[in-house]
Write a structure and sequence with these properties.
Strand content: 15-25%
Radius of gyration: 18 Å
Helix content: 25-40%
Strand order of the largest sheet: 1-2-4-3-5-6-7-8
Shape: globular
Length: about 300
């Protein structure tokens, strides 16, 4: 995806612990780091990059295996914990001590992991369409709606998942985007260009193979707690959570009791919003993030 599609962005690369990450960068000032989800890449944040480059250094990264970033050879070199360490290296490479991290979907999981593993490098956390590992695990074990809604994770974990996603020029992925009028033809072509790269689909589904997320299946138990090695799982930074209440992948109950794990919590529920709130409600999302970021500035004065 050419960086020129979003004005003033520069394409850069950084080597981190055996991988090469691609990212885009613009603006100046405090660092805001944007981390995407599946099956998107840095372009998912095009609306936020334009807005926050006005007064911040904005960086949106392609995670390992995605778009222009390298494809790990070993399955263990994928996943949330690895990505959190990658974000630490990227922040240091950029010359910053800390950042505001904004994550959607996968990026939300990476954000929570970063907050638990690298608290000293995080000023604020913004989570969109993503569950805290404790509530996610709870709902996958006890909520029939989430168990049904999580069946796609089982499909993505299977050995032939990449082959099936790539069939008929990525028909299954194209259908996901075609369901929503807020994705333009240009958006779809941008993602198709990334998916068509050699090894791209295999690189993305490797995340699911490595993490094992999903409801119980056969002898495999339900699994949603992607940072179980950390206890307690309290997020010790101010956190903004934004979600659509019509997300067919994550049920609303994932956000019940969230304040137990996130004491300094601001939460916004977008009525009728889908999983893809970045694309569906970019102005509203930007407003919520701007209010959250500006509140921190006012407190620091």
């Amino acid at each position: 995806m050419p960086c020129k599609l979003v004005a003033a962005l520069r394409c850069q690369f950084v080597d981190v612990d055996g991988a090469r990450l691609h990212y885009v960068i613009a603006g100046s000032g405090p660092l805001v780091l944007f981390v995407h989800g599946f099956p998107q890449h840095w372009y998912a944040f095009r609306h936020q990059l334009t807005e926050f480059a006005k007064d911040h250094t904005v960086v949106a990264v392609d995670l390992r295996g995605v778009n222009l970033s390298s494809r790990p050879e070993n399955l263990r070199d994928n996943g949330v914990w690895v990505a959190a360490d990658d974000m630490k290296c990227l922040v240091q490479h950029l010359g910053f001590r800390s950042c505001i991290l904004v994550g959607h979907d996968w990026g939300a999981a990476v954000g929570y992991s970063f907050a638990l593993h690298h608290r000293e490098m995080l000023d604020r956390l913004v989570i969109m369409s993503g569950s805290h590992p404790a509530t996610f695990d709870r709902e996958l074990h006890h909520n029939e709606k989430q168990i049904r809604g999580g069946k796609h994770w089982l499909r993505l974990r299977r050995p032939d998942s990449a082959e099936k996603l790539a069939a008929n020029d990525f028909e299954a992925l194209r259908r996901t985007f075609a369901e929503h009028s807020f994705f333009s033809g240009e958006d779809l072509e941008t993602y198709l260009a990334a998916w068509r790269q050699p090894g791209a689909i295999e690189g993305m589904v490797a995340w699911y193979h490595a993490e094992g997320w999903g409801p119980a299946e056969g002898l495999s138990p339900a699994h949603g707690n992607y940072i179980h090695e950390v206890s307690p799982q309290t997020i010790a930074v101010p956190t903004l959570v934004i979600y659509g209440d019509n997300d067919k992948f994550l049920v609303n109950e994932n956000y019940d009791g969230l304040d137990k794990y996130v004491p300094d919590l601001t939460i916004h529920r977008i009525e009728g919003g889908s999983h893809w709130i970045l694309d569906e409600h970019p102005t509203l999302v930007n407003t919520y993030i701007r209010e959250f970021v500006d509140r921190a500035r006012q407190k620091s004065r």
